[in-house]
Amino acid sequence: MNICVFLSAADLDDRYTRPAREFAELIGRGGHALVWGGSESGLMKVVADGVQETGGRLVGVSVDFLAARARTNADEMVIAKDLAERKALLLAKSDAVVIMVGGTGTLDEATEILELKKHGKTTKPVVLLNTEGFYDGLKQQFQRMEDEGFLPVPLTDLVFFAEDGVAALAYLEESVGIQ
Predict the structure, then answer these.
(1) CB of 61 within 8 A of CB of 89?
(2) How many other C-beta atoms can be found within 10 angstroms of the C-beta atom of residue 15?
(3) Low-confidence residues of the chain, pLDDT below 50?
(4) pTM attached to this predicted model
């Protein structure tokens, strides 16, 4: 399975890097590929290292203005002309999506995939990995959107909230039919 992971390229402390590394190792040991923003910095590097060191493939999609930060030893690296093309390529190359901790770029990617699901433009499973309760507020906001009629489909049809990497990967494998 090709798993697209949206996440931060920032250097973060152990409460985020440790669970990210553990999830990355699950991806690699499971024989899956990481499809990610291609960066060789911060949490993106931590995840790419974990996947690669445990036998998984790396499929990077960087963007022109960040190409100098792209990982040089990925199995595949594509350089997109802009962020919109990057998001489209990330989704095209993946079977499933995991949203990990991140900033505004990660939030942009997350809302785009959920909007595509809402309109039936993709059926790929999406997991929001809620490390250290990072997305508790967003989960509450999504629930309010559903409760007050802003979502035309049930929230559970759009995204699965996982508290750890084991639950996230189990949901993805079940969703795509991997036993």
Answers:
(1) yes
(2) 11
(3) none
(4) 0.95
